[in-house]
């Protein structure tokens, strides 16, 4: 799992809340870690298995990317129609979501 180790080693500092970094297995199966950065803060989780859940239940990993694409398509439609006679109902998730670039 070299990509997981690369992500972990990229951090300037670590705070371990469960387990110890030395326990990170070199031969852990692919797909058993989740990592992201948000400005100066990041989160790294490694587990024997992971499941993504929504309020409807578990989401297969291969469904995440299509769902994200569908969300951004809806977001774009929401804003394209916002000040027209075809405006969609107010959606606070769309109102609060601001892309980091010109758009998705």
Report on the architecture of this protein.
By secondary structure, the protein is α+β, with helices and mostly antiparallel strands. The chain folds into two domains: 2-46, no CATH class; 61-96, no CATH class. The chain contains three helices and four strands. The strands form two sheets. Strands 1-2 form a two-stranded antiparallel ribbon. The longest helix has 21 residues, at 61-81. The relative contact order is 0.10. The model has no long low-confidence stretch (mean pLDDT 82).
Q: How much of the residues is beta strand, in percent?
A: 15-25%
Order of helices and strands: HEEEEHH
Could you tell me the number of beta strands? 4
* Ends distance: 30 Å
Spatial order of the strands in the main sheet? 1-2
- Global morphology: elongated
Helix and strand content put the structural class at alpha+beta
Largest sheet: 2 strands, antiparallel
Mean pLDDT: 82
Helix content: 25-40%
Quickly count the domains. 2
> How many helical stretches?
3
List keywords for this structure.
2 domains; 3 helices; alpha+beta; two-stranded antiparallel sheet
Topology:
Layout: H1 2-9, E1 33-38, E2 41-46, E3 52-54, E4 57-59, H2 61-81, H3 92-96
Antiparallel strand pairs: 1-2, 3-4
């Amino acid at each position: 799992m070299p990509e997981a180790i690369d992500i972990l080693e990229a951090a300037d500092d670590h705070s371990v809340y469960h387990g110890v970094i030395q326990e990170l297995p070199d031969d852990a199966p692919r797909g058993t870690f989740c990592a992201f950065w948000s400005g100066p803060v990041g989160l790294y989780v490694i587990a024997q298995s992971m499941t993504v859940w929504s309020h409807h239940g578990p989401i297969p990993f291969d469904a995440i990317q299509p769902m994200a694409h569908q969300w951004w398509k809806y977001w774009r439609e929401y804003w394209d129609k916002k000040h027209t006679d075809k405006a969609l109902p107010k959606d606070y998730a769309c109102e609060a979501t601001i892309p980091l670039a010109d758009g998705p």
